[in-house]
Amino acid sequence: MKSCLDCGSITIGDQRRAPAKGGSHKDGCFGDAVVMGFTLRPARADDAVFLTHMLVEAAFWREDGPHGSVGEVLGTPELAHYVTGWPVPNEVGVVAESDQPVGAA
């Protein structure tokens, strides 16, 4: 994934999204996306453990904290397929960082 810091357009693989409202793309102006102080980057194979922990947070979210575990995610086929064998061809993930990973999609 690449994001143009000048116009806000995003490219994932070879697909370019339109520039943000009011922006205009300039050739060669791509860089990492910076959103609200976080850097967004493509998820890599070495992010698999972090992505699994983020899936626990998403799948078992409760106001008083998550009530699930990595073991439960990996033991539930409806959830495990999201992270088992990551990265899977033709799938895209994004990691938000602020000195270290803080979120994922």
User: How many domain regions?
Assistant: 2
Determine the number of helices (DSSP H or I, runs of at least 4 residues): 3
Task: Tell me the radius of gyration.
Answer: 16 Å
Q: Main β-sheet: number of strands, strand sense, barrel status? A: 4 strands, antiparallel
Average pLDDT over all residues = 76
Q: Strand order within the widest sheet?
A: 3-2-1-4
Element order: H for helix, E for strand: EEEEEEHHHEE
Strand percent estimate: 15-25%
Please report the distance between the alpha carbons of the first and last residues. Answer: 13 Å
Q: Identify low-pLDDT runs.
A: 12-22
* Class inferred from helices and paired strands: alpha+beta
Helix content estimate: 10-25%
Tertiary shape: flat
Number of strands: 8
Protein model, in words:
Helix content is 20%, strand content 25%. It is α+β, with helices and mostly antiparallel strands and 105 residues long. It has two domains: 2-31, no CATH class; 45-90, no CATH class. The protein has a four-stranded antiparallel β-sheet, with no helix packed on it. Strands 5-6-7-8 form a four-stranded antiparallel β-sheet. Strand 7 and strand 8 form a beta hairpin. The radius of gyration is 16 Å and the shape is flat. It starts with a strand and ends with a strand. 10% of the residues are buried. The model is unreliable at 12-22 (pLDDT under 50).
